[in-house]
């Protein structure tokens, strides 16, 4: 199970964002390929992530709006180089078309799992961002019977 926090990268949420870094096993840093200003903020966000997470936290750099190639303001090569220099995984995606969106989350989960397998993340350390819980009991029964409607607001 993954818990995802979308902090929107806005300065007004920066103090709140810092609290989410503590205990995070992974982070997705997303910038808009059509707005260089979002790319230019990556260094300060990366500094926060590095200072507030454990050294083995998985960080993936994602260039969003890959569907807007004609409006591109940050080259693929430039972002890839930034990612390589900083030890980040990198991909471009499009939230609009869905291109590489699922892949970003799957890559993060796979890399976190790999870090657990090779001992880079300690399941017993709270700061690892990973909680080990026993699996559900085996032999449970699923039912296809419809659940009764409840009265009142379902929200």
TrEMBL record:
<dbReference type="Pfam" id="PF00071">
    <property type="entry name" value="Ras"/>
</dbReference>
<dbReference type="InterPro" id="IPR050209">
    <property type="entry name" value="Rab_GTPases_membrane_traffic"/>
</dbReference>
<dbReference type="InterPro" id="IPR001806">
    <property type="entry name" value="Small_GTPase"/>
</dbReference>
<keyword id="KW-0547">Nucleotide-binding</keyword>
<protein>
    <submittedName>
        <fullName>RAB14, member RAS oncogene family, like</fullName>
    </submittedName>
</protein>
<dbReference type="InterPro" id="IPR005225">
    <property type="entry name" value="Small_GTP-bd"/>
</dbReference>
<comment type="similarity">
    <text>Belongs to the small GTPase superfamily. Rab family.</text>
</comment>
<dbReference type="GO" id="GO:0003924">
    <property type="term" value="F:GTPase activity"/>
</dbReference>
<keyword id="KW-0342">GTP-binding</keyword>
<dbReference type="GO" id="GO:0005525">
    <property type="term" value="F:GTP binding"/>
</dbReference>
<dbReference type="InterPro" id="IPR027417">
    <property type="entry name" value="P-loop_NTPase"/>
</dbReference>
<feature type="region of interest" description="Disordered">
    <location>
        <begin position="128"/>
        <end position="155"/>
    </location>
</feature>
